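Newbie here. two chains, one complex. Structure please?
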Amino acid sequence: MLPDTPENLMQIIGIYKAYAVPMDFYWRDLLYIGERVFLQPLPMFKYLISQEYLDRHNTYSGERSPLRIWRGRGETHPELLEFMAKGETGRRLPRLLHHLWHDRVNMEFAEACMQAMFWHTDINPTFNEYLYSDAYKAAADVAIKAYFKGNWAMLGLYKLFPDMFLEQVRQMSYYANLGLFWEVMAPVFFEMSDIYDEGGFKGVPDAMDFLVNGIFAVAGRPIYHHVYVGDECFEIIPKSAGFTWLYEAALPYVEAVFYRTAPFRGTKSYDAQVHQVPDDQSDFHYGILYADVFPVGSAGIPPTLLMQDMLHFLPPYLQEYYLQHCRGEDDQLIQLVITFQRSFYNVTSAVIQSLRAALYYLLDDPNPEHLMANRRFFEAQMDRLTRPEARLQAIQTDSYR
Amino acid sequence: MSTIVDIAVSTPGFETLVAAVQAASLVETLQSEGPFTVFAPNDDAFAKLPPNTVNNLVQNPPQLGRILCYHVVSGRWDQQRLSEFSQVMSVEGSPIPIRSHSPLEIKNASVIAADIEASNGIIHVIDTVILMG
């Protein structure tokens, strides 16, 4: 979907790198919250990740990885560590001060993505069915009682409102789900940036093919939710439940975040009575493929938070590029998120091609009926991107900045 | 008569499938009474998957087992019986579409050898690993 030009390739790879650095924090902190903070009634410090999770080695990248697929490092990215230490101010202050000053990685963006996955319940039926199973409820019950052991007030509340606690545990399972998903994506984007820096990608299709191979390579990664109370591990969703990265994390994430999400609060008003908000949740179209990126900075909307996160880690060639266009530094947040939109049309192309490869036929299949099946599949995908709000036409023009 | 597993083990060209079934601890199940219908991908079918896909799955037996269970249908479904339906339900729980009856095509895989009888079911050899979705 994204035209194959050197400028587009430079933009999308640059932004993948800028995205991968905060993502290296998102996945660690999502797992920290899902596994350790868990049902903390006042989770004020959930963004102050523990050293254990900051030091956690990536499962698929780095020398100590049990199943290394990507060549990058497994430890936290050095640019992230530097930013966590100094923030935008460039001064080494205690972490709590950076946090209170809001000079930190915006985990609220990651949580907004998690909530989108959690809220659109129809897109992950197998996983959601398990969240309401007896096995899940029993495992959650044991973990809740262990977590609040000796806390009679919380145990009393649990007795009175068990479903409220269970619903919170379900949300925690989505924290784990998204954390495990992004643990895979961060090294993918880092490696794409490294390959580009070495002159390895000849064009946009090469970048897309790399993503397609990456999606298949880790398709079978287990999606699970373990909770730790002290040294004891409670397997709320065990690996043996059989949930996979592709089916229970990646595809629901794409549907929830690329396509659907929800109207962003604080940008404009929607009148549901005149159908400005679709009746059917499956028809929501507020994701990055449709987003109007202009109202930046208003009311802390999730894309703004991500833009600010990516701004801290732009590669020099992209910083220079933004200074040359539009209003330079003054509107680089908007330029940056338009680049992000371009890059996610490329990721969407990779997802569509992966699904075609998994469920349909080769592009040069000699059987015309197979080619027609491919065509019907592509047309069904394109139907979602021909609605007026879609930015497909815009990202295909160079002047959209 | 041999079981489904015995046939797969003794037939050349199914080394990856046999290794996968062993890794996923499904040998005992596929040697049980059944009956089962197995759409068995040959080695060439597994080789079509991108690099690392199978390696990663073998490291994660429950997830591998789920993909393999998508290739198994409860009951003995020969080619003639399959031709009466547009889809069958896999043991994994997701439906398997039958996109063409002549020649027989199971989802995006072609059946290259049909109706191989076993004591506990029937095997159809396919040229592509089929995936849910």
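Moderator note: The mean pLDDT of chain B is 95. Chain B has one domain: 4-126. Thread marked as resolved.
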